[in-house]
Design a protein that fits this description.
2 copies of one chain form a homodimer. With 134 residues, the first copy, chain A, is α+β, with helices and mostly antiparallel strands. The first copy, chain A, has 3 helices and 6 strands; from the N terminus they run βαββββαβα. The first copy, chain A, has a single domain, classed as S-adenosylmethionine decarboxylase (4-Layer Sandwich), CATH 3.60.90. Chain A has a 6-stranded antiparallel sheet with strand order 2-3-4-5-1-6, covered by helices on one side. The radius of gyration of chain A is 18 Å and the shape is elongated.
Chain lengths: 134, 134
């Protein structure tokens, strides 16, 4: 039986008010709050202001990552939420971002990432070797 | 006529030698070199070591981002390369990572991100307002 290691939601947001996505501090605030909305665990966050327009940012999570890249001159933002563990957390984080930016149109896709055969289990020999067992 | 703002390659790598993806310093080296292979422009890079196994990391690019999350106990790594501009750079960066990790199987998908109607052009009024023109 297969199981998946992660859930990845990608969303392209169109018709966004450009003033909401132009500044690094605004997308930082947006993504930090999405982490709270999803009850996710932040490791670190990193943002960058482009000149003259747009910003980019990522939050590394214990559960994987959230990223955003913005083109305010096109009223467009691309957002990724990739989490392992409880899938509802990814949906809650993405919903927070979409609701906050109120795009006129969203192109959203959802993928399972890392599909493994549960029957094969873990690489026990390697794990034991790392633990100094063999 | 439509044009796309970015190209996103996602790849799940299976059957990877776990010793190649267990340590933060190894995936840092891998991703930093993929940036060079793709002739991409690094803004900043961020990595984290999980305990007991696996690591996570992202490089913010002027062109968007590269990320990796690893599960050495499952011989699995998930990799994203998302770039705007010349699409060949994304392929070269991803090819570098895949060739370096030599997985037995790869599940790879490619997406256009941010598809805009070129005929609509940019939001000129907003751009002018930001430039203090109106």
């Amino acid at each position: 039986m297969a199981k998946t290691l992660g859930l990845h939601i990608i969303a392209d947001l169109y018709g966004v008010n450009p003033d909401l996505i132009d500044r690094e501090e605004d997308i930082r605030h947006l993504l930090e709050n999405s982490v709270k909305a999803g009850e996710l665990t932040k490791i670190s966050s990193h943002f960058y202001q482009f000149n003259p327009h747009g910003a980019t940012g990522v939050i590394l999570l214990a559960e994987s990552h959230i990223s955003i890249h913005t083109w305010p001159e096109h009223k467009t933002a691309t957002v990724d939420v990739f989490t392992c563990g409880d899938p509802s957390k990814a949906y809650r984080a993405m919903d927070y971002i979409i609701n906050s930016l109120s795009p006129t149109h969203v192109d959203k896709k959802v993928f399972d990432r890392g599909i493994i055969e549960d029957s094969k289990g873990k690489d026990v020999l390697w794990i034991m070797s790392k633990a100094g067992c063999c």
